[in-house]
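Entry 14. Ran structure prediction on the chain below.
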Amino acid sequence: MSTRQRYRLRAPSSGRETIIEADPDKIYVDRETGEPMEVLGMLLPLAPSPSRLPWSIENLRLCPWCGQMAQKDLNDCPTCGRRMGPLRS
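Output, structure tokens:
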């Protein structure tokens, strides 16, 4: 389970983005330009979470029991707690 929050950061001049487990009080610098990166926002799901996948349509599936969205890498639905079946390839 991930206990640190993941953030989306961007270098203002180049537009390069990265997603990292960051400390909000720390300044992160772009590797190529050397400029400080700005925090765009926190990624869902918020820490602590059993999933490491960000909440985007490519990483979600429907729970067959309650119909709510859940991350693909979870075995149990976070909403109803029931076991979800295996994914089809």
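Residues 53-89 form one domain. Will compare against last week's run tomorrow.
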